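SEVERITY: medium
COMPONENT: batch folding queue
REPORTER: lab tech (J.R.)

DESCRIPTION
The queue accepted two submissions in a row. Attaching both inputs and their returned structure tokens so the on-call engineer can compare them side by side.

ATTACHMENT 1
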Amino acid sequence: MVKRALLALLLLGPWGVYAAHDFLAFDSSLPRADCVMVMLGGDGGARMRGGQALVDCGKAPALLVPARYQVLHAGGGGVVERADIVGAAPETRRPARPQARHAARTPAATGRVSLFGRGFRVYENTHLELLRGRRMMDARGYRSAVIVSSPYHMRRLQLIAHKVFGDDFRIGFAATPFEAYDVIGCYSSWANFRNVAGEYAKIGWFLVYSWFV
């Protein structure tokens, strides 16, 4: 059994790298949406430029950055010119009232669940970022969004977004064009290989824990 499992991994590994571009670089944008949502991390500058480009071309009137609790609104000429900070970062917020403190410690907010009386981190950062993005959309009455991130990151976003948003929202996906994605380079670039291998590992972890949350 162990030998068969190892053989399967040896066969699936090269296939996973070869098929990474078609599988990981998921793209399904919307012609028009209420907002563009940028997922930070990695090369955040390239992702922000990708999100702003969509707003500039009229894809949506607002740009949401859940990691910063931030909403950017399009101004004259389609240029993002005004920033509204929605809440403060957790470390800068005032102490919460008792009932608010309890709400802030729910699994959806902290990514932790109780097991045998102890809190364990289960939710991945991207999952928490999308949950925050949904709360920001709910607060503004937005019902559609185009999510922007790095090319290799899009498939995992699509899987998590399906659980977070369900059928209540229209969600599209657009990889930033300002970040290079060389799949074949995975064979020669440790950084590219690490990104691809990490995505497969994170997808696997999400598929496991999503059954229980």
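ATTACHMENT 2
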Amino acid sequence: MDTLSLAPQDLVRKAVVEVAQLPENELLVVLEMVDALKRQRAHPNRELASKIVAQARKRAESTRHLSREELMKQFSDTFEAIRADAIAKNTAIEGELESD
């Protein structure tokens, strides 16, 4: 039976039957997964946001010793590399920036 072609009520019925046949220790795993899905649905971007913040803090710590001028040079070089790559892939247009 292809679960992708099932109607929603049939999916629920199949899920209930499958879960009902699981041993108790596996039921606990299912409940944990359902709880994790609920939390994710309630705050879908929270986990991603916390990862981004952690990466930003790590990067900030690794560049703490650099002067403002050195940081701005790194930023400019990175920006130009991204821009050049976008132009090469035809996802940006040469002259798109006012400084071009």
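NOTES FROM REPORTER
The longest helix spans residues 68-88.
No errors were logged for either attachment.
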